[in-house]
Amino acid sequence: MNVRTRIAPSPTGFLHLGTARTALYSWAYARHFGGQFVLRIEDTDVQRSTQESVDQILDAMKWLGLEYDEGPFYQTQRLERYHAVIEQMLAEGTAYRCYCTPEELDAMREEQRARGEKTRYDGRWRPEPGKVLPPVPEGVKPVVRFRNPPQGMVAWDDLVKGPIMISNTEIDDLIILRPDGMPTYNFAVVIDDWDMKITHVFRGDEHINNTPWQINIFRALGAPLPRFGHCPIILGEDGLKLSKRRGAVSVTAYQEAGYLPEAMLNYLARLGWSHGDEELFLRDQMVRWFDGSHLAKSPAQWDPAKLAWVNAHYMKAADDARLAGLVQQQLASRGVAVGDLDQLTHAAALFKDRCTTVVELADWAEMLYVPITPRDEDLQAHVGEAVKPAIRALRERFETLEWDKATIAAAMKQALGEFGLKMPQLAPALRVLVCGRPQTPSIDAVLALFDRKIVIERLQST
Description:
By secondary structure, this protein is mostly helical. Helices cover 45% and strands 11% of the residues. The strands form five sheets. It has a three-stranded parallel beta sheet, covered by helices on one side. Strand 6 (153-158) and strand 7 (162-167) form a beta hairpin. The longest helix is centred in the N-terminal third of the chain and has 16 residues, at 17-32.
């Protein structure tokens, strides 16, 4: 079998974390088996779909590195195909037109509720041998309904949940075409998966109730069934479902917040899948391991602290020049222009071990380019009268010495001996005056990052 998977987001909002995880699993499964990964945009909800959402979905996929082999395909560009299949089904008797008005459907449901029954379409326009249908009302645009089998079971062996079985008596005759000519989700997704030869479908387990309808439509069309895998939902920190409508933020928001794509992929992968006890792994390793097994059957909890830990790991391992470019973008968004990437690269090397995100790294690097204002309490605690003479002497020596870490360190050592100080007295004072904070990495290495003139200027206050 040539494995073909897909991801099919709806552009009615951003690409949220659950869809990103599903995309990752679909992508990794296709890559593991040497197959193809397809991107489809399900934009038949014309009222709510936007180009902005489409662009955000494409940007998020690109940032995550989930390259698709085919697409993006847009459902609104396939309406002719859907209509052709509808006409075929009407001719074959697997679908029929229903002229119920919204008011009639509401009354039908109210009567069923009054009798204590499950609300469902009662089949009044469903053709049956010997049945006399109501007269076609004037001025009512019909919907088209799928003629669902009235008896039997729908069963499939889910890639995640295992065997699932649902009785056809639990589902009714689904609307597959609206009065405005737009296909409904459960119909369009079947035609798309059929035409695109999709073999494996990974998606959230909220779709389990849709699957029986889709399987029955596949069978009515004589189309091959894909394998389904329904992944449990992701829970937020409050234990409730994380979704576009409740508390979730977009994938690209994490990019803006300074997370690395390899960290996001690693973390998303572990929210519902495992390979032994491996917590940290690269994308290529996941491709080698991801064969569809070891997918969790229970919901996963979103843990920002765990994501930060994973990201910190990848920050430490990241190339310094790459981090410098990302920090440059962050600073540019703050209105801080950086021309010398060599300086920023050295700063990334020095500060990245203290950071969990690129935003934190930019917070450190920003002091190299914009004025700082030390806090009064830091000045009082660390820049006392005993240390000021040493700082003034250092300021004068800094004007002429070779500007590198070793020479700066030697000058500081000389000042310690000359003024009878200890490093825990001198170093915090220099940090507060030059960096605006009392803790930094080795102060000689930090000062060497700065332009000499800036250091001398910031020491003038003593």
